[in-house]
Amino acid sequence: MKTESRLVQWICWLIVITSFFLTGFIIGWFARPTSTETSHDAGSRRHLREFLDEMRPENIRDHLRKFTRLPHLAGTEQNLQLAEQIKGEWLAYGLDSVEMVPYDVLLSYPNISQPNYISIVDDLGNEMFNTSLSEPVPEGYENVSDIVPPYSAFSAQGQPGDLVYVNYGRTEDFFQLERQMGINVTGKIVIVRYGNIFRGNKVKNAMLHGASGIIMFSDPADYCAPGVQPYPDGWNLPGGGAQRGNVLNLNGAGDPLTPGYPAKEYTYRYNLEEGVGLPKIPVHPIGYHDAIQLLKNMGGDVPPNNWKGALNVSYRIGPGFTDGFSTQKVRMNIHTNNQVTRIYNVIGRLRGAVEPDRYVILGGHRDAWVFGGIDPVTGAAVVHESVRSAGKLLRKGWRPRRSIVFASWDAEEFGLLGSTEWAEENAKVLQERAVAYINADSAIEGMYTLRIDCTPSLHTLVYDITKQVSSPEEGEEGLSLYESWHKRDNWTDDRDAPRISKLGSGSDFEAYFIRLGIAAGRARYTKNRKTERYSSYPVYHSVYETFELVERFYDPSFRKLRAVAQVRGGLIFLLADSQLLPLDASQYAGSLTKYAHTIAQLGQKHPDALVKYGVSFDSLFSAVENFTVAARDFHERLTTLDRTDPIQIRMVNDQLMYLERAFVDPLGLPGRPFYRHVIFAPSSHNKYAGESFPGIYDALFDIERTANPKQAWDEVRRQISIAAFTVQAAAMTLTPPSETKSQISDVL
Amino acid sequence: MKTESRLVQWICWLIVITSFFLTGFIIGWFARPTSTETSHDAGSRRHLREFLDEMRPENIRDHLRKFTRLPHLAGTEQNLQLAEQIKGEWLAYGLDSVEMVPYDVLLSYPNISQPNYISIVDDLGNEMFNTSLSEPVPEGYENVSDIVPPYSAFSAQGQPGDLVYVNYGRTEDFFQLERQMGINVTGKIVIVRYGNIFRGNKVKNAMLHGASGIIMFSDPADYCAPGVQPYPDGWNLPGGGAQRGNVLNLNGAGDPLTPGYPAKEYTYRYNLEEGVGLPKIPVHPIGYHDAIQLLKNMGGDVPPNNWKGALNVSYRIGPGFTDGFSTQKVRMNIHTNNQVTRIYNVIGRLRGAVEPDRYVILGGHRDAWVFGGIDPVTGAAVVHESVRSAGKLLRKGWRPRRSIVFASWDAEEFGLLGSTEWAEENAKVLQERAVAYINADSAIEGMYTLRIDCTPSLHTLVYDITKQVSSPEEGEEGLSLYESWHKRDNWTDDRDAPRISKLGSGSDFEAYFIRLGIAAGRARYTKNRKTERYSSYPVYHSVYETFELVERFYDPSFRKLRAVAQVRGGLIFLLADSQLLPLDASQYAGSLTKYAHTIAQLGQKHPDALVKYGVSFDSLFSAVENFTVAARDFHERLTTLDRTDPIQIRMVNDQLMYLERAFVDPLGLPGRPFYRHVIFAPSSHNKYAGESFPGIYDALFDIERTANPKQAWDEVRRQISIAAFTVQAAAMTLTPPSETKSQISDVL
């Protein structure tokens, strides 16, 4: 009995122990997360706050001061030294790696022993007047050597001729000159105002119309703000200042001699005659003091008022000089040389913890025409501060989900060469793995408010991040940057939110966005677009872009630059660290709808022709409608996604990442094989202006000037068809990959 | 004391119980797999066995019988009905979905009321001889209507002229004719033998040399095997049979009127004059009975022996007829019409269980010139049996890891139109998600052994699967297909393994492989390439391609077709169901090394020119070496991969999937924008022949015929540079994405 009861007792205990063991086992089994994918977004937000708060105005000031002491033109020893310095500091800040990546690209420099100038010569060939050989150097920089004088990079070499004034040198200006004023510029030297469109387009137009040379001047109407003093007493362009700049028509080709491929040592190079976009005529920039001398004695008719600038001359059209001076000619003495030269990008990397094969890129250029006080060092200083702040977080053990790439590009000023060559070399890897590209050129061009140009899928993220950044404006303590911006630039006609613009070109995002289809955006502080009508900022690309220009006038507290740093950095941070990519397909749908209406309205200016040539925008509207439905359904499905399933997360993130890629057509836009984005590209008539549906836009632009309307309207029809197809194909990428039937309708 | 000891006892028990609980908890915690990614490859292999064993010769026989009773030319009612039937049966077999996908493409049909023929006319215009209007119909098919007579699809309409015989009509034949024999074909009708190169290339060559028409005949030397009777007593081509076929030069464009975009209703169509690849001269095919009549009285010189076929004529070159017949002319009466016509692909889908956004495609065409006894129905029957077998497994609860797409393409015979239009419509989704494409055209063209053409990364998988399939040969019971194949076609000069060939073109894999860069392969039973020298199989594209041809001669047991079905199906199965993609980058490295040596040797035929024009293959060898190292390291890393981490697995699988994509250049090969694969494409001189480094190959091909050697060698240099860059870029995709520095050297 006793042993029996003992046995029973033992059995009981065994049962109890076993059941506790089992309970423990079961709890243990279920307590363990089945995946490393836990929602880490709350932690990520805390790190974001730290990352933003770590950025300091005084640091940005110091970076700017440090990087603007000497000129650092692309291809020079100074710019290589600056690259080495940046590499060293990025490594010290804590990036996982920093590399120098060289390319050998075509650059263009004035000939030191034969300076460039323009002269007025009499009939014996005596020089009556010469334009200045350089700009007066600003105070404090008198001992600096290697300041490159104003020139037009890649200009051909020069010859004499008569002047013809063609306003801004736009397509419509030349059309007006030839058709309405009856003046042919063949063999003449064209003189045009800077501004309104990219200077390379002016040069292309001059060549197309047969001009033998082109002079570009900065008119005070376009380069002086009213009531502002010339530098150094204010931020206006002095009369002796002039705008440097390249005059290529690359259309995204990068190095003119190696289009489509990276300019490495082994790469095949075209001859100079075959190079992409090189002008065949001499080109030279002058300031307004020199321009007066060339313009004042011009003959011919007085032009319409909208051709007149603010100089005290009558802006006569020519050709040539007026009576009494009519035997005088203008001679362009241009000795600029093209030269294959080594450049260096600096590429820093920060490895992602979970998805190291996904890249978020923050890139901006380092090369400057002279000191780069605004362009590009306000941008480079901001990148520098972002790297420093990220390094600080890294030391605390943080690491983003995805990899981040920081880039300091070279030779942007010579045609976006460094960034484009790197994009060419890494095209395959970028197409497969790049999540987004944020550009970091000049961070300020005015003192009024924020300016954002970005792809529509980034709109929501831009609003999100600007709500987490403080207004840099005095008297707006407690206001967010979003509120400050909203107050100053409301998107009234569309929606009650701060205005966001389309991306054009003219900076290093071009190859990433327009060629490769990587979601892209840029942020900077800007002027008031309603009241301040001058082009760019007045001293743009002159020797007067100094540290002092920024410190005295543009951002004495450096808080505006800090705000821009926080926006650029914050975008990168959230793109790299959010579990679900913060890209919004529905915003893209909204934008496409708006663009479709805009382009259809442009077509509807010719109602009779639309009927006659059977042109309809219906297929485009139908495709946009399908895209809208697909985007809405996509985001609805996201709300019920299993956030613990890593493959599910990766699948939808892949759809978001590849959305922008879907808008790229490998065949390119007509005649522009490297501009492949069907929704956004510059118009053929102005590289700076981002147009939506650029293929249709350009086809319609030609309608008014064509000699063959049937052919021109056929091209419009063809472009509408390509746009409709592209939008539909993009919609298809948003339908569930797990579905086995088409989720969206056919295009009607 | 008692209460105290009770307390101690309780505490002891509590400790014991707690420790058991904790032990349970800990064991439970660690016992639970942290991921759903368990190695399921063993289970997958068991399912593979079931999948292969389920395929039966008698079923393949039945499918073939059923699908070859009536003609099913693309664009006809019969072919639509066949599509509906296939759709119904695939759904019944158990696919998740089956869709009909229509396109409106340019097809070409003879005019029923004005039949095509060629005549010899006397000087009064009387027809002295006319070629036959149709082939004698084989027994059993006398009551079948809608048999399209032999014609050259897309031929222009015709005119009279003198004949010139130009052998096979190859680039080198025309070169020999003009340079060595001194005969100009301008305005003449060219007559050439079928065979050796794609017929469209013959037509292009004739046009390039100014011919006014071209006649193609099947010579017994090329279309009759020695000792074999003509059909129906054997499988040789009867004298009244002729080869249909399209004569386009599309170079991968798909529908000639909508190059680059799917031929949907809304799509912009070019005019016929602007269409891609349409011949401007009349073209017509004839059999050898008719050919004798045209050839026998020809005048001019007797050609070299390698221009002579097996007919009892002297193969004189012309131009025109010999004395006594010299006033006679040849007239081509061609009334074939181009016509935009609706075609239908059938697309069946099977959803993947783990990665539904990864697609493995098995596609082959359904349209036939007449009955399609071999081409394509031996292929379509094999696909049908694969679908049936997969459906059977599905019913048992199996589902592959990735999605499988089965495709029945339309209008392959008119220029790969159905498959290309679908590739165009789905290009974005396919570029992002397609793992591999296996082609399923004719499954048999001879009775000797297996033939595989595929991308190098599939070599290892092909060997693997053929070891799991039994030899279909009598007397080889117990031998694997691999052993049987190895015995018959050893790759002796390279390695001791069965020979695998490069992909050329001429079937539906083209757009997937050469345009989109999706890993691709094809499998069929073939003749003995060493002893059987005739082109294709003798009755190719004639009315004699019947069910009986296969049942009586090619594969009476249907075991050869079953073996091909098991190879094609097995490839699809393992690509869709293996946890790690069975793609082998090292095999690609080995092939690239071989190709680099081959192309360099071709260049070294001109040692003086290489020196004179500075041509070097070093950069290519350097890039191939880098690729080899990257591939080796990649596969080494796979051996230590954490197989339980889904993101790790996905990352390396993405690298494997995108490897083939890395060889695609969006700029295309020179003059061929839709042939984008830098490693594999047909030569410009023969669509059927797959060349490695086709850009370099074509540039070298031109060397011997060029008038400007400097320019020609510059093009060779340019192509070497592009090839080196592309191989290097592909190597970069194989380096660890988690590494932050370049893992491979620069190209030297």
Automatic annotation (TrEMBL), chains A, B:
Domain Peptidase M28 as annotated: residue spans: 345-472
Single Gene Ontology BP annotation: proteolysis
Entry EC no(s): 3.4.17.21
Major subcellular location class: membrane
Record's catalysed reaction(s): Release of an unsubstituted, C-terminal glutamyl residue, typically from Ac-Asp-Glu or folylpoly-gamma-glutamates
Gene Ontology CC annotation, any one: plasma membrane
PA domain ranges (all copies): 161-248
Role: Also exhibits a dipeptidyl-peptidase IV type activity. In vitro, cleaves Gly-Pro-AMC. Has both folate hydrolase and N-acetylated-alpha-linked-acidic dipeptidase (NAALADase) activity. Has a preference for tri-alpha-glutamate peptides. In the intestine, required for the uptake of folate. In the brain, modulates excitatory neurotransmission through the hydrolysis of the neuropeptide, N-aceylaspartylglutamate (NAAG), thereby releasing glutamate.
Protein name: Glutamate carboxypeptidase 2
Originating organism: Oncorhynchus mykiss (Rainbow trout)
Organism classification: Eukaryota, Metazoa, Chordata, Craniata, Vertebrata
